[in-house]
Amino acid sequence: MINNEIARLQNRYGNMKDEETVTTEENVLNVTFSEADENGNNVPEGIAKDNSLLVKYFAEAIRRDLIGKTRNDFLIIKLKTGFEDKEREWILGDLGLNKDDAAAAEKNFKVLITKVGLLEKRELNEGFFNQLYPNGDVKSEADFRNKIKEEIQAYWDGQARTQLQHQAYHELLDHTEITFPEKFLRKWMKTQGEKPKTDEEIEKEFPVFINQLKWTLISDKIVSENSIQVTPDEIRNFARQQLFGYMGMGQLNEDQPWVNDYIEKMMKDRKYIEDAYNRIQGQKIFEWAERQLNPQEKEISTEEFTKMVEAHQHHHH
């Protein structure tokens, strides 16, 4: 995972240089797709689209044909045999065709090379490290790898915590018995909004409404019994973190006057204060819930974890 992320960053910040000839599967080709017949004659009013893709995105037989080609050379390809499944789906979508339409994959296209390029990966040197981490705490490749590892660790820690909180939410919601005056609530829901709702609309919205009402009551009880409070300073800090997150400014000085001006402006926005208050309070409720648990650590692959998250969400939606 660390190697993949480093390679992604090297490519993202790399330099594209022009090449005369296609020499490798890593060459980047600017091409024009033009719908054609089997002989390469353009179809009247057919699809025409510019694209940019790596040689390795083509099927193996086409890759061999591309080696040695130069600008203004072309190939006639059938989408079905020109690309493997994953790439073909992407190409079909880009050409405005339906990936589920078998006839679309049978279409022939003339693929004209308009430019040959090669992406030179950024070297792992101090200039690159300083560009990514301007505060200068990454000096060597070892520092860089550690930093990437920390970021990946933080991401997956966050994912695991979100999953734990999601499960805690459903434990509280699904296993707390509250009896509601449903007949009265359905009647009340009909009168809310600009125009009266139909019985069908009420039936569709009612389960979500009841869950929200139930969670509000559960939350209020946890807050009152555990003296959970949100302070103005916590809201200010929330606004600061949100601002820096939006602007990708994790490395910059937090004490600049405009930052504080922005935060004080947000502190006068009632809607923002309510939203921030609810989000911070919600986080504190889940922190309380986590303290009531004794979770067991378990090693799990990313694939297994992703499946578990999807299964849990699917079960509850």
How would you characterize this protein structure?
Strands 1, 2, 3, 4 and 5 form a five-stranded antiparallel beta sheet that branches. Helix 10 crosses helix 12. This protein is α+β, with helices and mostly antiparallel strands and 317 residues long. It contains 13 helices and five strands. It has two domains: 107 residues, Chitinase A, domain 3; 162 residues, Trigger factor, domain 2, CATH 1.10.3120. It starts with a helix and ends with a helix.
CATH topology of the largest domain: Trigger factor, domain 2
CATH architecture descriptor of the largest domain: Orthogonal Bundle
* Total strand segments: 5
Please work out how many helical segments DSSP would assign.
Answer: 13
Shape: extended
Query: Which stretches are poorly predicted, pLDDT < 50 over at least 5 residues?
Result: none
Amino-to-carboxy terminus distance: 31 Å
Q: What is the domain total for the residues?
A: 2
CATH class of the largest domain: Mainly Alpha
Taken as a percent bin, the fraction of beta residues is 5-15%
Give a quick account of the main beta sheet: strands, pairing sense, barrel closure.
5 strands, antiparallel
Radius of gyration: 28 Å
Summarize the amount of helix as a percent range.
55-70%
Mean pLDDT: 90
